[in-house]
UniProtKB/TrEMBL annotation:
It comes from the Bacteria. InterPro entries: 2-thiour_desulf, DUF1722, UCP037004. This is DUF523 and DUF1722 domain-containing protein. It holds the Pfam family DUF1722. Residues 192-308 form the DUF1722 domain.
Length: 317
């Protein structure tokens, strides 16, 4: 990647004391681990739209599709102030080439889902709302990877999100080199195995799109490719899908490995399939053979080197 990967993030997750009670929600994985590889752009919608620290807690009230943001005790309506500030902030964020955003779970401003929305006449809330700012952000940037801090505690969801974030950075780097057929072919070639691990159908469909790239205008072609790419990467990569990719990679060594080496690979694949070892184990062995036998095509595959090993995203069995 050519420069620092930039992520938007709810400011309180970095340890900034901006919450209604003057506290924070520091997430040490985000700051101490992922933070070594990204540049964060902190955002606190409440402070941004003029609320003080500390302040009266706010909540969403009314129609789930268009709720109001009001004070819990006084009923002060912050909806217009939040929407006006958010519109300006989104304009500024668009200039920063963000590769994703990490929201504060269940927040009435920043929750990306499962946010409480109270009926105006009182009673039990619904739990299917979106935070006011988060909703505007996702509507404005529908293809950007987004997650909340709660869901990122799940190792599968964390891997999926960070994979999409790093892929978005590589995509932005490709765009800087120019929207040419050659650059699109190069990007797609490097991501073939990663796509296969998410969806064989998407892998084939995007392959056909690239194969016919010369017949199309670059602008809509690149837009269509990105949309299909993000849809594919949003799908969860399962053990079965990964076994298929690992076996596909092994096929590149059919003339290089002896019977014992091939058997060792197959045994590690089976151990991974049964949950006895994490995926990093067979991938490490395959990367050893990639270097040993000079397999340049595989060396350039992002699937075998998706993100920094320090993030330990492939270490869960």
């Amino acid at each position: 990647m050519t420069d620092q990967l930039r992520l938007g993030i709810s400011s309180c997750l970095l340890g900034n004391e901006v919450r209604y009670n003057g506290g924070h929600q520091l997430d040490r994985y985000l700051t101490h681990t992922l933070g070594k590889f990204v540049e964060y752009v902190p955002v606190c919608p409440e402070v941004g739209c003029g609320m003080s620290i500390p302040r009266e807690p706010v909540r969403l009230v009314g129609d789930v599709a268009a709720p109001r943001l009001v004070g819990r005790e006084t009923g002060t309506d912050w909806t217009e102030a939040m929407q006006t500030w958010a519109a300006d902030r989104l304009e500024a964020l668009e200039e920063l080439d963000l590769c994703g955003f990490i929201f504060k779970a269940k927040s009435p401003s920043s929750g990306m889902g499962r946010v409480k929305v109270y009926p105006p006449e009182g009673g039990q809330p619904r739990y299917d709302g979106r935070g006011l700012f988060a909703g505007m952000f996702m509507d404005r940037f529908p293809l950007l990877p987004v997650e909340d801090d709660g869901r990122l505690h799940d190792p599968v969801l964390r891997e999926n999100f960070i994979t999409r974030v790093f892929t978005m950075k590589r995509w932005r780097d490709t765009l800087k080199q120019g929207k040419t057929v050659g650059n699109l072919v190069d990007f797609h070639t490097r991501h073939k195995l990663l796509l296969m691990s998410c969806s064989v159908e998407s892998y084939r469909a995007l392959g056909k799109m690239v194969a016919g790239a010369a017949k199309h205008d670059p602008e809509p072609l690149f837009d269509d490719y990105l949309e299909q790419l993000i849809k594919a990467l949003t799908l969860k990569s399962t053990i079965k899908k990964n076994i298929n990719v690992l076996q596909h990679v092994l096929g590149y060594f059919k003339k290089d490995l002896d019977a014992a080496e091939k058997q060792e690979c197959l045994e590690l694949f089976e151990a991974y399939r049964q949950g006895h070892v994490p995926r990093i184990v067979p991938i490490t062995l395959l990367n050893h053979y990639v270097r040993k036998y000079g397999k340049q095509y595989l060396a350039e595959q992002t699937y075998l080197n998706q993100h920094p090993t320090e993030l330990r995203l492939l270490n869960h069995a």
